[in-house]
Structure formats: structure tokens, C-alpha cells
Design goal:
The complex is a heterodimer of chains A (about 500) and B (about 525). Chain A has about 500 residues and is mostly beta strands. Chain A is built from six helices and 36 strands. Chain A has two domains: about 100 residues, Immunoglobulin-like, CATH 2.60.40.3760; about 375 residues, TolB, C-terminal domain (Neuraminidase, 6 Propeller). Helices cover about 10% and strands about 45% of the residues of chain A. In chain A, strand 20 and strand 21 form a beta hairpin. Chain B is an all-alpha fold and about 525 residues long. Chain B is about 60% helix and about 0% strand. In chain B, helix 15 runs parallel beside helix 17, helix 21 runs antiparallel to helix 22 and helix 22 packs across helix 23. Chain B starts with a helix and ends in a 7-residue tail after the last helix. The chains are: A mainly beta (about 500), B mainly alpha (about 525). Strand 19 of chain A pairs antiparallel with strand 1 of chain B, so a sheet runs across the interface.
Chain lengths: ~500, ~525
């Protein structure tokens, strides 16, 4: 009886194993092209610690088989149209392929006959990627919002969990919008995100202590909006914005999000003080970001003069929306005195190119800067022409990162902590839903082909009707629980003080 | 089998339930399922089940699909209620003349489903028609399985002992709370039941039937809903009626076909907006493709994804040639039981532009899409107001259909200045063509106004129209001299002039846009 059970278990195990590792079709007809796979992982360079790159073969096949050949071995996978790779086996494959490549041969059974497609490579870099990323999960909606969450994803597995979910405090009458999460030096003991409307305030974790702050003062336009943690001191630069939305009657961009007013502030977390960085007339300053040594602040600013007193600024902004173009600026910063000086334009996009640059981010070694560029405006996630560009801060030369860009919107660029990986929000799939894509950035300053953050179910992005906004790298998970955030969210916010410079 | 009193009660309940559901409220049930969604696959399932009570919601969403055929959906639901009745009888040992007690829960569930009225457009709970029933059934099944007295004896018979009657009362109370609809606020707080809307509000049903007819391009059917109305139509009905007239080339009959809409009274805390009831379809039918998408997206964000919104998003994406986006939505809709054919038909349009261009839908809508450049604006959540103002202010129509819409919207909106400008352009563009009677009526009325940008000397009007207008003025002045109030004047003049623009212009003063 006991023997019988063992045989049964072995038979089932063999059956499962044979299902996981199908055999290669012997009579396949060779195709000269690459297979149509989704997500597109052909010829990409991946970190040596990322989770399996599961994909679906879109060739109208009933069955597919993928053979992965790597240094010292080969493995086959296939489950109907999907190629789902076992996580443990994938780790072994990556370990063996570090600094080398994995060759993938795809076979598809189309209308009863097998096709063998041109093989492609997946290059495995020796560089690792930060374990975690976080993003806001939101429908690409217009004015309405309902359920929003900020989630963190372990890139070495498929595990994802919520950092905070607005429904934990939202009621039928009091909705809450959450946005703009940010971390100090890729760590989570100093982090923040902002909440609007119901239980509004900025949630700040400072050296592990959770606070809820009201950053709006009588002297500033709004609470903090786009944040940037200072890398060495407990300061946060924010933009303050008066933001509005309007809608395109025909254009597929659909939405324009515009700031009718926009300034920069500095928040001293320890002193709970807000001071002004820049509030120039006729300038719309936004998107602050620090150099890694904390001695320079970069930001964007658009020169815009209101010309018609007879209409509201919002109306004039809507009428002249194509004239709003942002340039790139820098200012020196003394962390001890909190003084800014030598403000200069470092990239003239508006006048020289007729373009608008936004969302600058400096590489951890301080050598490069990524930013998004499009024809006009500040909200490039809704601009189909928005692309990611790279500036060499030494030479001030800029180049388009063609390997990262697509014909659709790319925005929110960010760097991994080791500077070897770039993550971008891309609408390349369908123009509407943003997905985080990652690209290798090698030591010579070259970006490689971007690929979507892998999902366990390769059809996930197709069937998921929410966007992944503002993706950020983290080297550790957020340890404050959603319940702790929710509890603090329900408390009154501590009002920040205004300090004159 | 011997017929017992318990059987008679449940039979009576089944008959009543069938009468109240598929017989009397088939459109209501159909609309509920259209505002629901079920997409096969792991992603949708996980999105639902990760919430509290997610599995119940997921099953409820699946079952709600069957209201596409109201008799089928009702049969499934009624079968569950019968099961609840049977389980309640057995669990609590209720018999004979007390057996109606076991019908309390099914009755509450039945009336709970009918107690939504206009709330069906605003409910956040996925699969709400089945959710409370499934929860109650689940509780009863658990109670039955765990209650030792209910288990079979060695002799294969149920023990006669049952749970105490007091527990039955507590159970009923708990279940009633379970059936609570949080979106509907507090029933005890002066809530006027929406059952009255569901059962008695004819316009509510007309709206649902007209929506479906227009969605399926059955414009004549939509128009037939407006015939023989005993009560004033709602603004939404008027909008849909005019959509049907527009696509059948009869928009100039707008004021002959009852154009005086009212705002429906819901009798509770619900604030109705056309934006939520039908804006995506209305905008689409008027060629405002981006706004159709904006509201389909907005409503799906706020009130949950639905087949209705998904269809509108597909239409938008195909029309604006966002084919990858259309393919995404189509791949979802193709997993449904009842909309996969609709999806497959549209999927063919992605690969064949000829099929799309030849489609009835394209031919109806395309002439309304203006060639003018894109602009930025905002509709303030008021679909009807936006459309009327947008078209009233539009110049340079690029089709005769659009020309009619522009002129008629300025009349509908009582924008005299805009009408005069459009009328002048119209006559210049069609020098040898008879001017439609409606335009003549309006021009005679509005062209003579002090601030009119046109003079009427150069236009030739039909004598019949001019004479009728003079008679209208005389009758109006006579009644005015007699000191007749406006409402009475409207009533007396309606038989003679109710189908003219003059009557609409003077007496339709209750234009509440919502």
C-alpha cells in the first residue's frame, strides 16, 4: 500500500514536471522573424536578480514552447500560449547567465503545424537592481477617483503589497486622493506621500517616526506637491501649485493638467518650517530635484505672463496652453544656511527648441540627468509626444534615449540606487495606461532596450485597468503598515510654520 | 407528492417574484446587468476578491450577467430565494401556518432588488442584485451544516428538533442588516423608497428602453417611446429623442415631438445627473468622441466598471483610431457571455477600415465630428448644457447634418443671437432651397428682436407660417389683456401652437439642466 502511494506521487510529480518542461517540437517550420511576444523581452538586458520574465506568445497558437539555453544548461517552458518560468529554476538560470546571455527559441503550434521563430537573447547584466519599487495604482481618469493605493513590489519576486490605500479612510461623502510618494536616498525610514481632500495632509516618515503635516501656510500657494528629499539633511523641497484640468475636444492626448500658479518651497522636517525657494512673478517653478551631494537644486520653470485681465487666469491658461513651456534650471544650495544662490538656466528648451522639459532626476553619481520632454506643458504623462532625454551634466549635452522611448508617452524617469537601471512610466502598450518599464544604463552611459516590469501572469497588463504612476526605486520595503498610516491619517495634521528667508 | 401549505406559499411567492421582476421590470434588470461587468480571467478575479467579501462579489458579478435575459437571471435569483425559504423552514422547524415567516427573507431580498430605482446608476457594490442573496444563503448553509440537530440520523430522517424561534428573529434581523444598501444612506432617515420609482415611474422605464434602442441604433424604437406620453418627458428622454431624430434626418421636428423635459424626482437623497445616466452614449451620438470617453472612464472609476462603459470605451478607441487601446478593451469584453459577439463585430473593424466606414454607427456619427481644430474646454459635469452651448457656438459646419444640429441646438437653448447667425449662414448656403418650417418659425420670432444681428427683409417666409405667427401673437395678446396667467395661457394655446417653436420659446420656462 505504502509503495503504491509512493508510485502514485512519483507519477503525479513526473506528470507535473513534464507539463512544466514540454518537449521541443521536432517538425517545426523555421520562420525568419522574431516571435510576437508580450511583454517584449527580445534582446533586452536584465538585472541578475530579477523575477522570471514570463511572456505570452501572440501568434494565434494553441500551444507554445520556449527553449531557454543558458551557460551550462537549457530548459523548456510552455503552457498554452504562455511561457511561465518556475521562480527557483529562473534563479539558477540567472546565476549561470550572469554577465552572459540566455538564448530563447520560441515554437508555436498554429493551426496544427509548428513554427520555430528566430531566436532572441536576453542579456543578464552583472549589476543587480534595487529589490523594491513603489508606484501609485490609479485609473487613468480625469476628475473622478475612487480607489487609489500606493503599492510596493519586490522585483526579485512577484510579491506586491499595499503601502497605503485611500479606502481605509475614505467615506461615502469624503473621498481622499493620494499622490507623490518620495524616499530619501532610496531608503524608507525617511519617506512621504501626500493626501488631498478627506483627511488631507502630508504623511512624513522622519527617521522612522510617522507625522502628518499641513504644509499649507498663508504665504504659500498650496501644500507641498512634487517633493524631493534632500540627500544629506532633513529637508524636503516641494513645488506648490494651483492646478487645474481641462479636456481636449478631439486630440487623443485627452487631458491637459496645468498649473496657473507654481512656486518652490523648502520644508525643514526637524523644525517644521516652510520657507520659500523661488516665487518669481511670471515664472511657474516646479519639479525640484537635488544633486546627490545636496549642494544643487535642479527644477523646471516656465515663463508665462498673463496678458488678459478681463478673464480668469485659468481661462487664459486654457486658451494659451500650448505656450506654456518649461526650461531646466539649477541653483546652488548651502545646507547649513538653507540659502539658495546662482540660479541659472541650464537647458533652454522653450526658446531654443520650442519644447518643454519636466521631471528632472540626477543619477546617483551626479554625472547624468534624465528628464521628460514634449512640445508643451508640464503633465507629460498625458502627452503622447513625451520622451525621455539624458543630459550629461559635465558637458551639458543632451540626447534622446531612443532605446527607452516609444511612439507614446514616456515620463517620470528615475534611477536605481546604483545608477545602472532606469525606470520610466510608459504608455507604450495602448496610449492610456502607464506601465513601469526598466532599462539598463551601462557604465559608458548607454541606455539599453527597455522592458516592462515582469508580472506573474503575462496578460496582466492587458486586463488591468489601472495605471502605475510615479514609479520609484527603494532598497528596502516600507515598514510602516497601511493600518498605521490610516490611523495617523485620521488625526489632525500639524500645521507647518512659515519662516522668512 | 402531497401538496402542503408550505408549497402553496412558496408557489405564490414565485409567481409574485416573476411578475415583479421579468414581467414588469425586464428593462430594469437588463440595465442592471449592463451596469455590471464580469471579465473572465485571473486579473479581474483578483481585483475583486482581494476586497472584503470579494468572493461573494465575484460570484455575484458572474450571476448578474444573466439578467441580459431577464427571465433567466430572475429564474436563478428566484431559485436561490426558494432555497433560502426551504433552508429557513428546516433550520428553524417552521411549519404549516407559520411558514410565511420563512418567506420574510426572500420577500425582503425581492423588494431590496426593486428598491434601487435610479440608484442602479450609482451603486458601488459589484453584483449587487445577487450579493445579499448569496450572503444570506451562505449563512443559512453554514448554519445548516454546523447545527448538529439538523444532521441526518441513522434512520435517514431529519430530527424534528429545530433552532429556537428567538434565534430565527435574531437571524432575520442580522440578514436584514446584511441586505442594507450603504449607498442609499439610512432608510430610517426619511428615505422615500425607490421602489416607487422602479414600479411606477414610467419615464424611468422609457429612459432605459430609449437608451438601449439608441445604443443598438434602433432610432425608430427610441422615437416610439415618446409617443402617447401622458406625463412630461425627462430631459434625458428629450435628449435621446433628439438623438433619434438627428440620426433619422428629422431634427427639425424637434419641437413637434415634445421638447419640454423635466428633471425626474427621485424622492430621496440622490442627485441625478445625466452625466451618470447616459452621458457617454449621448456625447458619442453627438460626435463628441473625447467627451464620451471622458465620462465612460469617469463613471467606471466612480461607480465601477461596467459592460456599458466598456462598450463606450471601445467605440471611442475605434473612432479615434487608438487601435491598441480598442484591442485591450475588446479582449476583455470578448470574455463575456453576452457581449462577445458585439466585441467580435468591432474587432473586425480594427483590421478593416472599410467595414468600419461602412458601419451604420460610423455613418451616423462621422458627419457630426467637426473638422475644426481641437480645443480645450470643460463641461462642468453638465452634458446637456455643454452640448447645447457647444453646438450653438459652433461655426462652419462640415455637413448638412451638423448644420441642422447647430441651428436646432441654438433654438433648443433659446440662444437667439446664435440662431440668427446660423440662420443667415444657412440661407446663404442654400439659396434655392426651401427653408424648413421650424427655421422660418424661429426666424420670424427671433429675427425681429431688437438685438438681432440680422434683418428679415431679405428672407422669404411661407405665408402659412407668417399668418400662423400673426395669429399666435394676436391670441397671446388677447389672453394677456384678459389677465390670464402664463400657465393657463400655455394650456390654452397648446392645442393650436404646441408644436411650434413659439410655444416652446414662451412657455417652456422650466428648463432645469441636471
Amino acid at each position: 500500500m505504502k509503495l503504491h502511494k509512493i508510485f502514485t506521487i512519483m507519477a503525479v510529480a513526473c506528470l507535473i514536471a513534464s507539463c512544466n518542461h514540454p518537449s521541443i517540437p521536432t517538425n517545426a517550420k523555421q520562420e525568419s522573424r522574431l516571435p510576437n511576444i508580450y511583454p517584449d523581452y527580445t534582446e533586452v538586458t536584465i538585472p541578475c536578480n530579477i523575477c522570471p520574465l514570463n511572456f505570452v506568445v501572440r501568434e494565434g497558437a494553441t500551444d507554445v514552447v520556449a527553449k531557454l539555453t543558458y551557460p551550462g544548461g537549457e530548459m523548456t517552458y510552455g503552457n498554452e500560449q504562455k511561457v511561465l518560468i518556475d521562480e527557483e529554476e529562473w534563479k539558477e538560470i540567472l546565476k549561470a547567465s550572469k554577465g552572459e546571455s540566455i538564448q530563447v527559441e520560441v515554437y508555436a503550434n498554429v493551426n496544427g503545424s509548428w513554427k520555430a521563430f528566430k531566436p532572441f537573447n536576453i542579456y543578464v547584466a552583472e549589476d543587480t537592481i534595487d529589490h523594491y519599487i513603489s508606484y501609485r495604482v490609479i485609473q487613468p481618469s480625469y476628475v473622478a477617483y475612487e480607489k487609489l493605493s500606493i503599492n510596493q513590489r519586490d522585483l526579485t519576486s512577484f510579491n506586491e503589497r499595499e503601502i497605503y490605500n485611500n479606502m481605509s479612510v475614505s467615506t461615502e461623502s469624503t473621498g481622499q486622493c493620494i499622490n507623490c510618494h518620495s524616499y530619501k536616498n532610496f531608503k524608507t525610514d525617511n519617506m512621504l506621500f501626500h493626501m488631498r481632500q478627506g483627511y488631507g495632509g502630508t504623511m512624513i516618515v522622519s527617521n522612522g517616526e510617522l507625522k502628518k503635516i499641513d504644509l499649507k501656510t498663508d504665504e504659500t500657494i498650496s501644500a507641498g506637491v512634487y517633493p524631493a528629499w534632500h540627500p544629506t539633511h532633513n529637508y524636503i523641497a516641494f513645488s506648490t501649485n494651483k492646478t487645474g484640468q481641462s479636456f481636449h475636444t478631439k486630440h487623443i492626448n485627452k487631458i491637459e493638467v496645468q498649473d496657473t500658479e507654481s512656486d518652490l518651497i523648502l520644508y525643514d522636517v526637524d523644525k517644521n518650517e516652510v520657507s520659500i525657494i523661488s516665487e518669481l512673478d511670471d515664472e511657474l517653478e516646479v519639479f525640484p530635484t537635488w544633486s546627490p551631494d545636496g549642494k544643487k537644486l535642479y527644477f523646471c520653470s516656465a515663463h508665462f505672463e498673463y496678458q488678459n485681465d478681463s478673464i480668469a487666469p485659468e481661462t487664459e491658461m486654457i486658451q494659451r496652453y500650448k505656450e506654456v513651456k518649461y526650461d531646466l534650471y539649477s541653483a546652488d544650495f548651502d545646507p547649513e544656511t538653507k540659502q539658495f544662490s546662482n540660479m541659472e538656466k541650464i537647458f533652454d528648451a522653450a526658446d531654443s527648441l520650442g519644447q518643454s522639459v519636466t521631471l528632472p532626476r540626477v543619477s546617483p553619481d551626479g554625472r547624468y540627468m534624465l528628464f521628460a520632454k514634449a512640445e508643451f506643458g508640464c503633465f507629460h504623462v498625458w502627452h503622447n509626444d513625451a520622451d525621455i532625454f539624458l543630459m550629461d551634466l559635465k558637458t551639458k549635452k543632451t540626447e534622446e534615449l531612443k532605446a527607452v522611448n516609444s511612439p507614446r508617452s514616456e515620463s517620470y524617469p528615475t534611477w536605481s540606487s546604483n545608477g545602472r537601471w532606469i525606470m520610466v512610466d510608459s504608455r507604450r502598450d495602448d496610449g492610456n495606461y502607464t506601465r513601469p518599464v526598466i532599462a539598463y544604463f551601462d557604465k559608458s552611459g548607454k541606455a539599453h532596450k527597455a522592458f516592462a516590469v515582469p508580472q506573474q501572469d503575462p496578460n496582466f497588463y492587458t486586463f488591468f485597468l489601472r495605471s502605475f504612476n510615479r514609479p520609484e526605486f527603494m532598497i528596502e520595503p516600507v515598514t510602516v503598515t497601511p493600518q498605521e498610516f490610516a490611523k495617523k491619517a485620521k488625526e489632525d495634521a500639524v500645521k507647518a510654520k512659515f519662516a522668512k528667508n | 407528492m402531497r401538496i402542503r401549505i408550505e408549497h402553496i406559499y412558496i408557489l405564490a411567492f414565485i409567481i409574485v417574484a416573476y411578475i415583479l421582476l421579468p414581467v414588469m421590470n425586464a428593462d430594469y434588470l437588463f440595465t442592471i446587468q449592463e451596469n455590471n461587468v464580469f471579465i473572465s480571467g485571473h486579473t479581474f478575479m483578483m481585483d475583486i476578491v482581494k476586497n472584503e467579501g470579494g468572493w461573494v462579489a465575484w460570484v455575484a458579478c458572474y450571476l448578474t450577467q444573466f439578467f441580459y435575459h431577464p427571465w433567466l437571471g430572475s429564474t436563478i435569483l428566484i431559485a436561490f430565494w426558494v432555497a433560502i425559504y426551504v433552508l429557513t423552514l428546516h433550520l428553524f422547524g417552521i411549519k404549516d401556518k407559520f411558514s410565511p415567516i420563512a418567506l420574510i427573507l426572500p420577500t425582503i431580498l425581492l423588494f431590496n432588488l426593486l428598491d434601487y430605482g435610479y440608484w442602479i446608476y450609482y451603486v458601488h457594490t459589484p453584483g449587487f442584485p445577487f450579493q445579499p442573496t448569496l450572503i444570506v444563503l451562505f449563512i443559512l448553509l453554514c448554519a445548516s451544516l454546523t447545527h448538529p440537530l439538523f444532521r441526518r440520523t441513522k434512520h435517514g430522517k431529519f430530527l424534528s428538533n429545530a433552532l429556537p424561534f428567538e434565534l430565527c428573529i435574531i437571524f432575520l434581523a442580522v440578514c436584514t442588516l446584511t441586505i442594507w444598501k450603504p449607498e442609499k444612506k439610512n432608510i430610517l432617515n426619511n428615505h422615500q423608497s425607490a421602489i416607487l420609482t422602479t414600479l411606477k415611474d414610467k419615464n424611468f422605464k422609457h429612459e432605459m428602453r430609449m437608451y438601449r434602442a439608441i445604443d443598438e441604433s434602433r432610432y425608430e424604437d427610441a422615437l416610439s417611446e415618446m409617443k402617447d406620453l401622458k406625463e412630461p418627458p425627462t430631459n434625458l428622454m428629450v435628449l435621446m429623442k433628439n438623438v433619434a431624430l438627428m440620426h433619422t434626418g428629422r431634427l427639425t421636428e424637434m419641437f413637434k415631438t415634445n421638447n419640454c423635459g423635466i428633471m425626474p424626482e427621485t424622492g430621496d437623497s440622490l442627485h441625478l445627473h445625466i452625466s451618470q445616466l447616459a452621458a457617454p452614449l449621448i456625447y458619442y451620438q453627438f460626435g463628441q468622441i473625447n467627451y464620451a470617453y471622458r465620462w465612460a472612464m469617469g463613471n467606471s472609476v466612480k461607480y465601477g466598471q461596467s459592460f456599458r462603459n466598456l462598450k463606450m470605451m471601445i467605440r471611442y478607441a475605434i473612432f479615434n483610431q487608438e487601435f491598441d487601446l480598442a484591442a485591450k478593451y475588446l479582449s476583455m469584453l470578448k470574455t463575456s457571455i453576452y457581449y462577445k459577439d458585439w466585441a467580435k463585430e468591432r474587432e473586425a473593424w480594427l483590421t478593416s477600415s472599410t467595414l468600419f466606414i461602412q458601419s451604420k454607427e460610423f455613418q451616423n456619427i462621422a458627419p457630426l465630428v467637426n473638422d475644426e481644430a481641437n480645443s480645450l474646454d470643460y463641461d462642468e459635469g453638465l452634458c446637456e448644457k455643454y452640448l447645447l452651448e457647444h453646438f450653438s457656438n459652433q461655426l462652419n459646419p462640415n455637413s448638412s447634418k451638423q448644420e441642422d444640429v447647430i441651428i436646432c441646438c441654438s433654438l433648443w437653448n433659446k440662444d437667439a443671437y446664435a440662431f440668427c447667425v446660423h440662420f443667415y449662414d444657412y440661407v446663404q448656403a442654400h439659396p434655392n432651397q426651401a427653408i424648413p418650417e421650424l427655421y422660418q418659425e424661429a426666424a420670424i420670432l427671433l429675427g425681429n428682436a431688437e438685438d438681432s444681428p440680422i434683418t428679415l427683409n431679405n428672407f422669404k417666409f411661407d405665408t402659412l407660417v407668417s399668418d400662423k405667427y400673426n395669429n399666435f401673437v394676436n391670441n397671446y395678446n388677447q389672453l394677456l389683456q384678459q389677465g390670464i396667467d402664463e400657465a393657463e395661457m400655455a394650456r390654452r394655446l397648446k392645442p393650436l401652437y404646441g408644436d411650434t417653436y413659439w410655444w416652446y420659446y414662451y412657455f417652456y420656462t422650466d428648463f432645469n439642466i441636471y
